[in-house]
What we know:
The protein is 36% helix and 20% strand. The protein has one domain: 3-Layer(aba) Sandwich (L-fuculose-1-phosphate Aldolase). By secondary structure, it is an alpha+beta fold.
Amino acid sequence: MTGLAEARAAIIAAGQRLDHLGWVPATAGNISVRLGDGSIAITRSGGHKGFLSDDGVIRVGLDGVPLREGDRPSAETGLHCGIYRRFAAAGAVLHGHSVPVTVLSRRLAGSIRLEGYELLKAFPGLATHQAAVALPVFENDQDIARLQDAVETRWAEEATIPPGYLLRGHGIYVWGADMPQALMRLEAVEFMLRCELEARRLS
Ligand SMILES: CSC[C@@H](O)[C@@H](O)C(=O)COP(=O)(O)O
Ligand SMILES: [Zn+2]
């Protein structure tokens, strides 16, 4: 059962890793972990995710409401909570703003297809490179409740939902059972998107 201290340590370490990789420029990105009591530990809004302290991680309910009055959680808390509500197995959620995610999502509407990559095996249920995953790309929206509605509408239409999606010109969301799995999936997706970007430069 994940407690707040453990979640804070995992979120702080993940923030440093994402910053090191250049995926959370300025104050971009947000990170969360589901706690054993069903609440969510999530980054405060507006801080640099590479320099988080314990105080930069606060608790919200599954409805996104802070458990301590006056706390201001990530502006995108509604997207994190939407993932936790929909996927009981989700234990950690990562959001970043890398260059490949931003450039490709501005070019490609609807979805980004990843096919033939060995790293596809980072996705659940895939044991071979002879596979394809279509990552949804949603139009960016500053109205997070409306954006979450669009995400849920799309999820309702899909037979298989990959553990991630992109927001057009904005960033990426990826989740996993715990922080190591969420990081592994994000790194795999980012690698494949970097390849897609390079391939487009060559062609
Ligand atoms: C640096 S602006 C980025 C924000 O608008 C947002 O997209 C973001 O990722 C971080 O918001 P935050 O409220 O700190 O979680
Ligand atoms: Zn963002």
